[in-house]
Amino acid sequence: MGWEALGQWGADVARVEPLAGGVANDVWHVRVGGRLAVGRLGGRSDADLAWETGLLRYLDRAGLAVPVPIPAVDGRLFADGLVVMTYLEGEPPETPADWRRVAGALRELHRLTRGWPQRPGWRSSTDLLRVETGTKIDLGAMPPEGVARCRAAWARLAGRQTCVVHGDPNRGNVRMTADRVGLIDWDEAHVDVPDLDLVLPGNAAGLDDGGFDIAAQASAAWEAAVCWDDDYSVKRLAEVRAVRKAYGQ
C-alpha cells in the first residue's frame, strides 16, 4: 500500500520531510493530530513488527526513553508495513560523560529484558556457532576463513546470559537531554549477549581490558557478518583477528 497507509492514523495526518539514515526503511517526519511524529515504512513482517512495537511499549512503561508506537485509529500499532512513533527531542552524545550516560541506559535495557524472546527469524551471535543463517546473516556467503574467525570471536561469549540488545548504539541513534538518554532506531535490536552493545567510545561502559577485547572482537565479527559483503563489512572483518585455535578445530 505504501504511504497511503498513513491515512489509517486519521484524517489529520501528513508527511512533512524525509529523515536521513534510513537504509532498509523509508523514514519521514509526519504530523498526526497536530503533533510531530516519525513514520517508518518498510518490508518487515507483521511478526517482526509486533515484536518491536511490543518491546518499545514495554520499555516506555519501564521508564526508558524510546520512540513509542502511536496506534492507528483502529488501535493497531502498525499497518501495511508502516509504524508511526513519537518523536524524541535531544542531541547526540559528545563528551565522555555523555557516553557514560549512554552506557547506563544500555545496561538498564539489558537488565529489563533478560529472558526476552528472540526477534522472529533472528539468531544471536552464539546461535551462529551452530547455524549459518538468520535474518540478514548468511555465513555461507562469507569466506570460510572469515567465518572461522567470526565464530572464534563469538565462542568467547558462549554461556553468558542474553537479553535484548539495541544492536546499533552509535552517536546518530542517541538523543540526549539534561534529564534522559533516548535510544532510537531499533531496526537491529534482537536477543543476544549484552557485550555487543557495550563497545562504546572511550570504553564508556568501563569494561576491563579482557572484557573490552572480547566485546570488541565479537562486535566486529557481528557487523562483518550482518553487512556482508560491502566495504564496511570487509573492513570490520579485517579487525577480527585469527586466534591460535579457531572455533570447531
Provide an overview of this structure.
The model has no long low-confidence stretch (mean pLDDT 95). The strands form four sheets. This protein has a four-stranded antiparallel beta sheet with strand order 1-2-3-4, with no helix packed on it. It is built from five helices and ten strands, in the order βββαβαββαββββαα. The protein has two domains: 2-86, Phosphorylase Kinase, domain 1 (2-Layer Sandwich), CATH 3.30.200; 96-238, Aminoglycoside phosphotransferase (APH), C-terminal lobe (Aminoglycoside 3'-phosphotransferase, Chain: A, domain 2, Alpha-Beta Complex). A hairpin with a 4-residue loop joins strand 8 (174-176) and strand 9 (181-183). With 249 residues, the chain is of the alpha+beta class. It comes from Paractinoplanes rishiriensis. This is Aminoglycoside phosphotransferase domain-containing protein. Residues 16-202 form the Aminoglycoside phosphotransferase domain.
CATH topology of the largest domain: Aminoglycoside 3'-phosphotransferase, Chain: A, domain 2
* The named CATH superfamily of the largest domain: Aminoglycoside phosphotransferase (APH), C-terminal lobe
Order of helices and strands: EEEHEHEEHEEEEHH
Number of helices: 5
Query: For the record, what CATH class of the largest domain applies?
Result: Alpha Beta
What is the residue-averaged pLDDT? 95
Give the total of beta strands.
10
* General form: globular
Largest sheet: 4 strands, antiparallel
Distance between the termini: 50 Å
Strand ordering within the main sheet: 1-2-3-4
User: Which bin fits the share of residues in helices?
Assistant: 25-40%
- In the predicted model, the low-confidence regions spanning at least 5 consecutive residues are none
Give the DSSP E fraction (strand runs of 2 or more residues): 15-25%
Radius of gyration equals 19 Å
Which architecture name of the largest domain does CATH use? Answer: Alpha-Beta Complex
